[in-house]
Automatic annotation (TrEMBL):
Keywords: ATP-binding, Nucleotide-binding, Phosphoprotein. Residues 3-119 form the Response regulatory domain. InterPro entries: AAA_dom, CheY-like_superfamily, P-loop_NTPase, ParA/MinD_ATPase, Sig_transdc_resp-reg_receiver. It comes from Massilia norwichensis. This is AAA family ATPase. It comes from the Bacteria. The modification 4-aspartylphosphate is found at D54. The keyword S-adenosyl-L-methionine does not apply.
């Protein structure tokens, strides 16, 4: 693990660096800053896993600065070293979520025990075995981006899962806009460019955070500029992502190329999104034919029917017969709620919790999180047989 030390005390730096280096695995004090202000002015390019703050020379402004730094390195653990002269700062630190506070002069055993605790909790996070789901639009405007982004938000907020959505569009990627008004500081292209540095905290620092549990990795905004993602990059990013997120959702768009295929290779399930209309069904068929010709086992492909209205000419059963793939879920046509949500960049679940679209996404969360333990059979009952919510 990499640590940042904030202290003017060079002797303390040497002490912590040598104690850290002696650990297995080592704690690498990769950088130091003389004060919290200095740490904020000169942020590290790569977020540290641990930030150690010596508060013995703290002053009144440091409470605010510490809070800002905890927000800046949101994924890092913080450890405070105190000589008991700044109780106010300690209280602020606790409020900012700092859990480890050690007395100065430093007792080595206490330091190691604190690092053990941090490493153990980081280990829990890194033991995640995330599931990867790809959403593919069968036709432009099918709703793949709306569903994937809003489903990500729903998974994070309703099921308390840690969720990453990656916008794999080569051009015109727009996933962040559906759920956020933040402009992405980093994109998939930046991550590929710095692929050698990738780890959980780095990946997390490249996301647009919609909530603390839901981040979006934006598509490269200008495909002419920067590095193009290569299949090898995707392998690495997904491997790291699996270790740090419960669910990784891919907004694949419609292009089938080396990069999207590599991503699809790694998925646990592929969800083509289509509307119940002939042009969509034709394109879905082409898509499924491509998958079959590539030798994909189509077992883990499930359709999501968007803008579904009961009683139409085409029925879900027909779709199943025409495409040979099961329908996982239907999302109702909900023009007002969805248009408001998309236009404002606010997840529909947040904007209109009681809307039909929001309720349908909540059902999908239930379906997918329960699917990890139950049989697929229940899904069909739910769609074709039993009534809503009767699960
Ligand atoms: N269930 C729905 N009800 C009503 N409108 C929808 C629904 N899903 C999507 N839309 C509308 O369709 C448009 C296209 O959706 P989008 O997710 O961008 O499609 P795709 O990513 O598949 O090209 C959105 O702007 C949204 O307004
Ligand atoms: Mg889209």
């Amino acid at each position: 693990m990499k640590a940042l030390l904030i202290s003017r005390d060079t002797q303390l730096y040497a002490e912590i660096a040598s104690q850290g280096a002696a650990r297995v695995p080592p704690l690498n004090v990769a950088a130091s800053r003389v004060s919290l202000r200095d740490a904020l002015d000169r942020p590290l390019a790569e977020a540290p896993g641990l930030v150690i703050v010596d508060t013995s020379e703290a002053d009144v402004a440091d409470g605010d600065l510490l809070e800002r730094l905890t927000r800046h390195y949101a994924s890092a653990h913080f450890m405070l070293l105190t000589d008991n002269h700044h109780p106010d700062l300690l209280i602020r630190a606790m409020r900012a979520g700092v859990r480890e506070v050690l007395q100065l002069p430093l007792v080595h055993r206490a330091l190691h025990e604190a690092i053990d605790r941090i490493a153990a909790s980081a280990g829990v996070a890194s033991a995640r075995d995330g599931k990867i789901f790809a959403f593919i639009a069968c036709k432009g405007g099918s709703g793949a981006t709306f569903i994937s982004t809003n489903f990500g938000y729903a998974l994070a907020t309703l099921a308390d899962k840690k969720v990453l959505l990656i916008d794999l569009h080569r051009q015109f990627g727009d996933a962040t806009l559906y759920v956020s008004d933040q402009k992405p500081a980093m994109t998939l292209s930046d991550v590929c460019q710095q692929i050698a540095r990738i780890d959980g905290p780095f990946l997390e620092s490249c996301l647009v955070h919609v909530t603390p549990g839901f981040g979006v990795l934006a598509a490269a905004d200008d495909p002419g500029q920067g590095i193009e993602a290569k299949p090898e990059h995707i392998d690495i990013i997904l491997r790291v992502a699996r270790q740090h997120y419960d669910y990784i959702l891919l907004d694949v768009g419609r292009q089938i190329d080396a990069v999207s295929l590599r991503a699809l290779d790694a998925t646990d399930a592929i969800y083509p999104v289509l509307q119940l209309a002939l042009p969509d069904i034709r394109d879905a068929r082409r898509l499924l034919d491509i998958f079959r010709s590539l030798g994909y086992v189509t077992d883990h492909i499930r359709l999501i029917v968007n803008r579904y209205e009961k009683g139409g000419r085409l029925r879900l059963q027909d779709l199943h017969a025409a495409l040979g793939a099961e329908v996982l879920h239907t999302v109702p046509n909900d023009y007002v709620a969805v248009t408001d949500s998309v236009n404002q960049g606010i997840p529909v679940l947040q904007l209109a919790r009681g809307s039909a679209a929001a309720r349908s996404l909540a059902d999908l969360v239930e379906l997918i999180t329960a699917r990890r333990v139950t049989e697929t059979k229940g899904l069909f009952d739910r769609l074709f047989g039993r009534g809503e919510g009767d699960n």
